[in-house]
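Ticket #495: bound-state structure for nicotinamide-adenine-dinucleotide.
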Amino acid sequence: MKLIEHFVGGKIIPGTSNKKGKVFNPATGDQEKEVRIASKKDLDSAVEVAKKAFQEWSVKPSLVRARVMFKFKELIEKNSDELTQLIVNEHGKVYEDAKGSLTRGLEVVEFACGIPHLLKGEFSENVGTNVDSWSMRQPLGVVAGITPFNFPAMVPMWMFPIAIACGNTFILKPSEKDPSCSIKLAELLKEAGLPDGVFNVINGDKEAVDAILTNPDIKAVSFVGSTPIAKYIYENSAKNEKRVQALGGAKNHLVVMPDCDLDGAVNGLMGYGSAGERCMAQSVAVAVGDIGDELVSRLSKKAEALKVGPGMDKNSEMGPLVTKEHLEKVRGYVDLGVKEGAKLVVDGRSLKLQGYENGFYIGGCLFDHVKKEMRIYKEEIFGPVLSVVRVKTFEDAANLINDHEYGNGVSIYTRDGDAGRTFASKIQVGMVGINVPIPVPMAFHSFGGWKRSLFGDSAMHGMEGIKFYTKLKTITSRWPSGIRSNAEFVMPTMK
Ligand code: NAD
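RESOLUTION: The complex was predicted; output attached.
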């Protein structure tokens, strides 16, 4: 069985631990690979390698670092089919969706290609008589990224292209559920000319994460995952004097106003694409006024017609969930919703696929009359389960959303400019869509939620990413008047 190892100092290494994790193909339910689970010692050795590499990498001209990014971009494009298949075979999502997520990661690489421009500092002439002031941004040192299972290429690529373009060296600890993509990306970076030790991958679980949090040579930690772990990462990074950005879970609402393009809203709510395993998936439809019955009727037809199948099958619209445990958790939430009294309009729990009986599949599920006190409303399910909550007014919808503990993404569908504008201004959520269902910011803007969807002060990529991965230094300088005003034409020794 294929064993996925670590990548440190420019090569694949086994490390010191014999502990291994299982990697499944969710479409068949078969375990196809194993992954090495690092010890603390493995993580600490990788940090030593990265620390050494920092000495040379951090002083390379930014243009040299940009050229590696340009080459890396080409190589990702050339290898996109292989990378996409790795995502599909370990995560389960459908091929086109996986390819789209790779493109969103690639866009961050394209952004990082502009690093000489992005690192330009500020300059003020004559802040005092003959005194100038200027600033520069310098890299932090060794930085680490800890990433979730749901975007095995894109989420790491929110982090490392910017971090290494800024002159840092990087340790990536990917999800142990789908680790292969990270190793492939490391190999492509090497092929692009990145010096050994600048980008390293350590596979593992809590032990590797805790080693990251306590290693004094790691200066910053970027995390994306569930809220309880995000909070743990935030607290422990801060305790150990590290800079930290920790993105957590989500419950995203889409407000359906009575005047909206209902077909557009219904299509927007078909967030079943990644089987709901998206932190920006719309998992709650908020029906305003009397639009609820029509909305539920149209949604149920679409949810029932959803084609579920293996991610590599071009006809599949939705693939399986990532693991058997996750499938059981999502099924458990649907059972819970029924117990809590919500109306299960579409029930995907009993779906079985011929030829794929052991795959981790569940069909699309739709609940109507969900109430704000129910756990299926309050908690993140991270599966293809859409809840419809009915409210009377726009204000009720906004209050509902503002009261929720999460604040990652939100959308409103309306033809009323006033409602759209007020919504954008008043809503307590980090990423807002107006007639756009999944408002993921482009690479040159920044990605991040509010409330318990992000712990820390910086979002990912865009200028927030540049600031996160650099330290600001401000220089104030005065030069004594010299040769220009007091020119001397005799040899100093003749004086
Ligand atoms: P997770 O929190 O279980 O795991 C994330 C990472 O933390 C993994 O690398 C894992 O190995 C590590 N980890 C897990 N348990 C740990 C522990 N006890 N101590 C230390 N480290 C631990 O998340 P997941 O299930 O892989 O991913 C799904 C979650 O990620 C969802 O909650 C989703 O909303 C969230 N997510 C958020 C965003 C965002 O931008 N806010 C983006 C993608 C995913």
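RESOLUTION NOTES: The chain has a mean pLDDT of 95.
TICKET STATUS: resolved
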